[in-house]
Amino acid sequence: MDAEPAPAQVSPALASEYGYGMYSARYGNIYTARQLLQLLQRANGTFRPTEDYWIKGDGVVDPFRPTIEPEPFGSVEELRAVRAGHLDCVSGLLRDADVFVFTLGLTEAWLSKTDGACYPLCPGTVAGVFDETVHAFRNLDYTEVRADMEAFIAGVRDINPKLRFLLTVSPVPLAATATDTQVAVATAYSKSVLRAVAGDLVAAHEFIDYFPSFEIITSPFMRGYFFQPDGREILPRGVEHVMSVFFEQHPVPGGKASVATGSAASDADQASFERDMTADEVREKIKCDEELLSAFAPERNA
Amino acid sequence: MQVLIVGDSHTGALKRGHDLMVQDGTAPDGITWRIQPLGPGKRMNTPFWKKAGDHAVITDPQYGKMMPKLPPDDPRPDAIGLSMPMWNGRIMRMILQSGYVVHGLPGQGHVMSRALLRHMVLSDMKYIMALGAYLGELGYPVFAIEPPTLFRHWSYVRPFGAETCLALQAEVRAIQRACVDEAGMPVIELPEGCILEDGFMDPQHRSEDPTDTHHVNAEFGALMLKRAVPYLRRIATAPASRNAVG
Fold first, then answer.
1. Does one domain contain both A184 and A95?
2. Is residue B29 part of a domain?
3. Which pTM does this prediction carry?
4. Are residues A292 and B11, on separate chains, in Cβ contact within 8 Å?
5. Which of the four, A35, A217, B86, B115, has the lowest number of CB atoms within 10 Å?
6. What does the pLDDT look like over B168-212, one tens digit per residue?
7. H helices within chain A, ranges in order?
């Protein structure tokens, strides 16, 4: 599903730059269960974070998706208007989806001390200002992640009782940690919590399933085969393998899966783009053709 | 002076305007016009040309049939006018049909940022502007001819509303104009008075075809060509300042 598509005919590259087509709506990366829960709460209007914009340069960004556009918004009003439309799309998405796929990514979170708002990035990194009287780091534990996930699942099924869930755990190790432990130790903690929560949610609810991309990539018997030389990023062959296993196990009902590649428009895209013209466009194109014919055809035929 | 004008379907009115000038004996002295369409503008936001030494090859199959290379071999133009960079219908359709409204502009729909609009417009123009820059690098004075703005009869005005269409048109045209200005490309502007108080083009300039809602007629085409003459005379006498003339 793409509940928040880019305007028609925007190039894949530009769409991607503005966060379109990457996820089912333009929410950017959702790293933590707390963020996921608050996305639902913000979409259904039960949570309105106090700190709802960060200053960046001459403009402002959305603290809850600070890199969704390459340039800051020109005003707080613009940010809020664009965000309101986005949250409407999220509401529609959660209401209409049949399956919700979520990858549990991190336990480390940056929270507001004022109202508990959970930011995807530390305030003051890409925008805004870190203020230790307002912002705090928290490494969410099993109980918190489980509670957040349970609350999200219950909340979204209140809106959409038929919704089923497919969980995965990100196989990508932490690049850095805000805890005082070594990053490998922090990674082991984070993945252990997330994997345990995923497993227990599957055990507790018949409408939740787990797909083991984490194990496919990270299991010792894979000997790091799917990792880049940096030992962190996943190689394209790893992604392809995971996706091929996924689609073997989860065939798309009635057709072939389509995965956006973000490549430039091909001839086939162009042909499809012509086919997709609306009746008004067709009429206008005919008029353009006729205009050229009326002005130039006699000369060409001469 | 040889002047080549090339571009989208708005070259049609320029060509018919030229024919009219010849017919009524008002064609400016000393200027030989060649007005050549590539085709409808719909594909001008795609990579429709490529560099080829001392010229551009038109790689879009449809456009290439009309003009395989730019400029053509003979005669060598002394100036090239582009009737391409400032047509706003293409980008307006993309936004209106998708149900979007640009923040701060009137209308109903899913709000998109002004930055996205600006990037959409610049992306829409990039192959045209690159062509203009390349022709400039090859030594040709290149200028743009502003196309008409909206007629009240434009097919999108009824479903989306006059206020929405006019505001979006003005915004898009302003971005296009800033881009063209930044590139140092002189613009032959629409004459004052062709836009009425309601913001639409004066319907007296509409195409002779009453079912055509966005092209102008031969008289207006002739008027636009005549408006280019002072600029052309200037570059003919002051070649060193060709591309700096606005």
1. yes
2. yes
3. 0.86
4. yes
5. B115
6. 999 999 999 999 999 999 999 999 999 999 999 999 999 999 999
7. 12-17, 33-43, 76-96, 142-159, 183-204, 213-218, 236-249, 267-275, 279-301
- All residues of chain A having their beta carbon less than 8 Å from the beta carbon of residue B6 are none
Closest CB to B12 among A6, A270, A292? A292
Average pLDDT, integer, range B95-118: 95
Domain residues for the domain of B138 are 2-87+125-154+184-244
User: Does the residue A237 lie in any domain?
Assistant: no
All residues of chain B having their beta carbon less than 8 Å from the beta carbon of residue A67 are none
Q: How many beta-carbon pairs below 8 A join chains A and B? A: 116
Looking at residue A122, the DSSP 8-state letter turns out to be -
Sheet containing A208-210, strands listed edge to edge, beginning at the edge strand earlier in sequence: A99-104, A164-169, A208-210
A108-112 and B32-37: which strand pairing?
unpaired
- Tell me how many domains chain B contains: 1
Which residues of A fall below an 8 Å CB-CB distance to B?
4-11, 14, 17-18, 69-71, 73-74, 77-78, 81-82, 84-85, 88-89, 265, 270, 278, 280-281, 283-285, 287-292, 294-296
Considering only CB atoms, A7 lies closest to which of B40, B98, B115, namely B98
pLDDT for res B1: 94
Which of A165, A160, A178, A164 has the alpha carbon at shortest distance from A96?
A: A160
Task: Return the pLDDT at A277.
Answer: 59
The reply to whether A136 falls in a domain is yes
**C-alpha to C-alpha distance for B65 and A291, rounded to whole angstroms:** 17
Nearest CB to A85 within list B42, B111, B211: B111
> Last residue of a domain, which of A193, A210, A227?
A210
- Kindly report, residue by residue over A215-260, the tens digit of the pLDDT: 999 999 888 899 998 888 899 999 999 999 999 988 877 766 555 4
Segments forming the whole domain that contains residue A282: 268-302
Interface TM-score (ipTM) > 0.90: no
Domain final position from A143, A177, A210: A210
